[in-house]
Specification:
Blueprint: H1 36-49, E1 54-56, H2 58-68, H3 80-86, H4 88-93, E2 100-106, E3 111-114, E4 119-132, E5 138-157, E6 160-167
Length: 169
């Protein structure tokens, strides 16, 4: 069982390592096993380091869009106009379309649970949406709380590690 510490802080995490067993099989040369404790301490270390706090600005949105949808290289603008069509209060507040910046933050340590064929990640967080004004000043439009529960299953197909992601809630 491994433990991951936040950089510069080797104090113990708020978890207790539970014993686990590895099935006795002798048909492979190498076996890898990761305990739930390893994932819990990793989550704690990343949370403590602020790694779950992300700011998504216009240029990052373009690169994400380009990475996931490589068919065309058209520019993708997310603006107050798009949010205004979904949330009428934003349309009333911001008549002129401005670029939007998103600030995503984990508000609690993400919980990782191992199951028989998958693992579950529970994340509590918040998202603050800003309009970027012409002088580059961010102005807060709204904040929302987010609670996500996701299951991830990993399988090996044709010597490739494949994963499937399911948003439970």
């Amino acid at each position: 069982q491994g433990i991951v510490y936040p950089a510069g802080n080797c104090s113990g995490p708020p978890y207790v390592a539970a014993p686990f067993t590895i099935p006795d099989q002798s048909d492979s040369m190498l076996y890898l096993a990761f305990s739930e404790y390893f994932f819990q301490t990793s989550s704690f270390a990343y949370y403590t380091a602020g790694a779950f706090n992300i700011t998504i600005a216009e240029e990052v949105i373009f690169y994400l869009f380009f990475f996931f949808f490589l068919q065309t290289c058209s520019y993708f603008n997310i603006s107050t106009e798009i949010f205004g069509s979904i949330i009428p209060e934003v349309a009333k507040y911001s008549v002129t379309p401005y670029p939007v910046m998103l600030k995503l933050m984990a508000t609690e340590i993400p919980i990782i649970s191992l199951e028989q064929d998958s693992f579950t990640v529970e994340i509590q967080g918040s998202m603050e949406v800003f309009a970027v004004l012409p002088d580059s000043t961010p102005q807060s439009l709204f904040t929302m709380n987010i609670a996500a529960n996701t299951s991830i299953a990993l399988n090996i197909f044709d010597q490739k590690l494949m994963g499937s992601l399911c948003l439970n809630r």
